[in-house]
């Protein structure tokens, strides 16, 4: 019933951002997200001071589950943020890199 209402409103539903890392190498992390409708997506990486480091995704995507590989080998240990933006929706998560 809830999904039917969402389809009628034709709004974007982002299930959430999930951060996964491998046990072998913590420098490589995967950021996963799920879309329920076509949408222009921007996924950006920021340092602790709020400076944009990288644009991971900047395109129109179809509904589905997506993964982005974040390579931290060129970054120093510290706290970083990644932000997903689509229309009026925005979600920011923290990423801790320890080498």
Structure description:
The protein has 99 residues and is mainly beta. It has a domain at 34-99: Sandwich (Immunoglobulin-like). The chain is 8% helix and 57% strand. The protein is built from 1 helix and 7 strands. The protein has one helix spanning 2-9; strands at 18-21, 28-35, 39-46, 52-61, 64-71, 78-86, 89-97. Strands 4-3-6-7 form a 4-stranded antiparallel sheet, with no helix packed on it. It has a 3-stranded antiparallel sheet with strand order 1-2-5, with no helix packed on it. The longest helix is centred in the N-terminal third of the chain and has 8 residues, at 2-9. The chain is globular.
List keywords for this structure.
99 residues, mainly beta, 4-stranded antiparallel sheet, 1 helix, 7 strands, 8% helix
Helix/strand layout:
Blueprint: H1 2-9, E1 18-21, E2 28-35, E3 39-46, E4 52-61, E5 64-71, E6 78-86, E7 89-97
Antiparallel strand pairs: 1-2, 2-5, 3-4, 3-6, 6-7
Q: How large is the count of helical segments? A: 1
What's the overall geometry? globular
Tell me the CATH architecture of the domain at 34-99. Answer: Sandwich
Structural class assignment = mainly beta
| Relative helix content | under 10%
Write a short abstract of this structure:
By secondary structure, the protein is mainly beta. It contains one helix and seven strands.
């Amino acid at each position: 019933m809830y999904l039917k209402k969402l389809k009628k409103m034709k709004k974007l539903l982002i299930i959430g951002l999930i951060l996964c890392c491998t046990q072998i190498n913590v420098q490589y992390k995967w950021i996963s997200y799920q879309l329920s409708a076509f949408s222009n997506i921007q996924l950006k990486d920021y340092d602790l001071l709020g400076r944009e480091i990288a644009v991971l995704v900047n395109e129109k995507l179809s509904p589905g589950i997506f993964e982005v590989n974040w390579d931290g080998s060129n970054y120093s240990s510290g706290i970083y943020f990644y932000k997903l933006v689509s229309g009026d929706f925005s979600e920011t998560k923290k990423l801790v890199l320890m080498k």
